[in-house]
Each structure stands twice: as structure tokens, then as C-alpha cells.
Write a structure and sequence with these properties.
Helix content is 36%, strand content 33%. By secondary structure, it is an alpha/beta fold. Strands 1, 2, 3, 6, 7 and 8 form a six-stranded mixed β-sheet that branches. The chain has a two-stranded antiparallel sheet with strand order 4-5. The longest helix has 24 residues. The chain starts with a helix and ends with a helix.
Length: 224
């Protein structure tokens, strides 16, 4: 009996140790969201407000909340996301410029940290226990269509396409990822509700970020 209790205790301690090791190994990505000036849409602001049940002034905030929800709720054993605090953002805001640049031969809306002191970036990452910082530099909503099929008939429905430009730096201020026109993937067969809402409801987009996040994590893992 005493032997069995000892075995259970050992197994419990091993389980706790394994869990703590997993948490300790998880790396954090600090996220700087796009600004109001980096949020563009081919749909009228009034229509975005109507679909999201908010005022026109709240549309930008609604979509950034969607970004935050998707990133911070994503389950990964290797990485976690945290939005930058307002204080930290204000610290670096004037030292971050935005340009059209090339990364790995492809143009995209990029962040430029050339005048941001390396020590300042390192300090902010250390204070947040983060190893990377991600800048989302552009969020675009484009008009698109989604075709639904019923028997031999098909219908072209107004729909939307969401694209992001972003880059990621390590604590040495080295850009390790730079991407443009990355599409949110909502599946080949979106729900009838999503089709009816033209894929414009920010709170419904959370699962559409999954492929983007998975690809980002895979690339970060490869760069380790």
C-alpha cells in the first residue's frame, strides 16, 4: 500500500515537472496592432458598422479586438501571443516608421525600426518576458464573391477577403519574417450566417486566423 502511494506521488511530481517545463519553454510574441490609418476597406464604413452592431467610430476597435482574440486565444505548446501595452507602444511609437519594402524579394507594407534603439527594444521584450515582436502593418478588406451550390444551381454571393501585412523581429532587432497580402482563411464552406454577413462580422473571424497563426508559428520554429 505504501509502495503504491509512493508511486502515485512520484507520477504526480513528474506530471507537475513536465507541465512546468512546458510552460517555461513557451516563447512569447509581443504584438503591435495596425493603426486606424492602416485599416482600409472597399466596403463602406456604415455597412461594416451595421454588420458589427457598432457605431462607425467603433469599427476599427471591433476589428482589432478580433485580432487580439484570435492571437491570444490560439493554443500552442511552443508560442503565445500578447498585445503590447499602451505604455510600451507610446515608448516606441515615434521611433517606428512604415514603408513599402521588400523581404525575401517580395514587396509589402513593412515596419522600419532603423531609428529605434536596439537597447530599448530589448528592454521592452525583457520586461514582457517576450522573445519576439510582431508588427501588423496593414489590414485590408476587399470585395469578393463566394459561390454556393444547390443541386445543379449555383449562386454568387457578395463576400469579403481579409488581408494582412506583418513582420516579426527578434530581440536583436533582426527582421526574421516579413509577409504581405496574407489572407484570412475561413474555409471552403463558410456557414450560411457568415455568407449572409459577407464575412464582415469581426467576432466571427477568429477561426479564420488559425491558418495564418499556424504558418507563422511554423516559420518561427524553423528560424530558432
Amino acid at each position: 500500500m505504501l509502495f503504491l502511494k509512493s508511486v502515485r506521488i512520484i507520477l504526480l511530481l513528474l506530471s507537475i515537472s513536465s507541465s512546468l517545463a512546458s510552460v517555461a519553454q513557451k516563447q512569447k510574441i509581443l504584438v503591435v496592432p495596425y493603426t486606424r490609418f492602416q485599416f482600409v476597406s472597399e466596403y463602406q464604413l456604415a455597412e461594416l458598422a451595421s454588420v458589427n452592431n457598432v457605431s462607425s467610430q467603433e469599427v476599427y476597435t471591433e476589428y482589432t479586438i478580433g485580432l487580439k482574440t484570435a492571437l491570444t486565444n490560439y493554443k500552442s505548446e511552443q508560442f503565445e501571443f500578447e498585445m503590447i501595452s499602451e505604455l510600451d507602444y507610446l515608448t516606441i511609437k515615434k521611433q517606428v516608421k512604415y514603408d513599402i519594402e521588400k523581404f525575401n524579394g517580395r514587396k509589402y507594407n513593412s515596419s522600419n525600426l532603423s531609428i529605434l534603439e536596439k537597447e530599448k527594444l530589448t528592454e521592452i521584450l525583457a520586461q514582457n518576458n517576450a522573445q519576439f515582436i510582431m508588427f501588423v502593418n496593414w489590414y485590408a478588406i476587399q470585395k469578393n464573391v463566394h459561390t454556393t451550390y444547390t443541386g445543379d444551381n449555383n449562386k454568387r454571393n457578395p463576400f469579403s477577403l481579409h488581408k494582412l501585412d506583418f513582420d516579426v523581429y527578434n530581440s536583436k532587432k533582426e527582421k526574421i519574417i516579413g509577409k504581405g497580402n496574407v489572407k484570412l482563411y475561413c474555409g471552403d464552406f463558410p456557414s450560411a450566417t457568415m455568407v449572409e454577413e459577407k464575412c464582415l462580422k469581426a467576432s466571427s473571424l477568429t477561426p479564420c486566423y488559425n491558418q495564418l497563426i499556424a504558418d507563422l508559428i511554423a516559420e518561427l520554429s524553423a528560424n530558432k
